[in-house]
Write a structure and sequence with these properties.
2 copies of one chain form a homodimer. In chain A, helix 3 crosses helix 4. Chain A has 6 helices and 3 strands. Chain A has a domain of about 80 residues: Multidrug-efflux Transporter Regulator, Chain: A, Domain 2 (Orthogonal Bundle), CATH 1.10.1660.10. In chain A, a hairpin with a 5-residue loop joins strand 2 and strand 3. The first copy, chain A, is elongated, with a radius of gyration of 22 Å. Chain A starts with 12 loop residues before the first strand and ends in a 23-residue tail after the last helix. Chain A is mostly helical. At the A-B interface, helix 3 and helix 5 of A face helix 3, helix 5 and helix 6 of B. Chain B binds a DNA duplex through helix 2.
DNA sequence: GCCGCAGTTCAAGTGAGGTTGAGTTTTTGG
DNA sequence: CCAAAAACTCAACCTCACTTGAACTGCGGC
């Protein structure tokens, strides 16, 4: 398959190919480029061409989204990584530690909530005075304007 | 404080009082009413008046949001509860079981992710071929139109 | 009797993370 | 060589959970 001696570095991928292989819609890829998450070069006819490594970048974005990072944060992380080669172990270690603590935080928050819920199943109270579930909701007020992005999972359905 | 023999059932609260006590902005309370999550009666001069139990309802909404339910789902849950009295133990048991499994689902998803991440910290690979983190992201594609609400937690900052 | 804050409605804006559609151009396969 | 498929741009739209602003009205106090 390789006529030339250049291994496969000069093999650029179209947006359709990237979309297909990554499972991310072409519109989303353009959006990501807009947001500075990925890059492309253009053909003479203005069509996007991606390096293979872009697939890795996109996978990275998806993984980070699952961890709970916003695109802006993901961009920051990506900006600190080289885009032409595999990140160093140090890069990765730094990032994964941040992710790890994020996950830990979120997990333990949900576990606390679950335990409170279990307590409530027992008592069946729904009492404002006694119920942990209710009282824990206190510190949720006071945030700035704009949308609150919240922890609605992406389980099976819309 | 009770001149009459009716205990305190006829003590209605203004939107300001409810806002202050629940920590939910008045605008949000109107929004919730619009969405059918809470109810109010009006004074002769068209001002909202809330029953005490509305505080309980609002706390319920907040707890449900923490579990990860959308307002529409919370409305459904509330619609299945009596609004004038404390819910029965059976009501509560039913709801809390749904919540519980939601939480369990989400928690185990995050735990899986964390474990994959741990594996990756060890290997430092970021390789598309071998990395679980990446490969697990596969089935995230294919959803309908509209916004994907995602699992960005509400930690310390916006 | 009037000041002023708290309340009212309704429309529009916000922000994240995209999708959809119209109209045009480029690339590809027969 | 030409039609069809795929890409392009740009603006508009979508959801969710609210907030903000404009333009009024209600209610308690002095």
């Amino acid at each position: 398959m390789s006529e030339e001696n250049v291994p496969s570095k000069d093999h650029w991928l179209s947006i359709g190919e990237i979309a297909h292989r990554s499972g991310v819609a072409a519109s989303a890829l353009r959006f990501y480029e807009d947001q500075g998450l990925i890059r492309s070069r253009r053909t003479a006819g203005n069509q996007r061409q991606y390096q293979r490594s872009t697939l890795r970048r996109i996978a990275f974005v998806q993984a980070a989204q699952r961890v709970g990072l916003a695109l802006a944060e993901i961009k920051q992380a990506l900006d600190s990584l080289p885009d032409d080669r595999t990140p160093t172990r140090a890069d990765w270690s730094r990032l994964s530690k941040t992710w790890r603590s994020r996950l830990d935080e979120r997990i333990s928050e949900l576990e606390r909530l679950r335990d409170d819920l279990d307590g409530c199943i027992g008592c069946g109270c729904l009492s404002l005075q006694r119920c942990n579930l209710y009282n824990k909701a206190d510190r949720l007020a006071e945030r700035g304007p704009g949308a609150r992005i919240l922890n609605v999972g992406i389980p099976g359905e819309a």
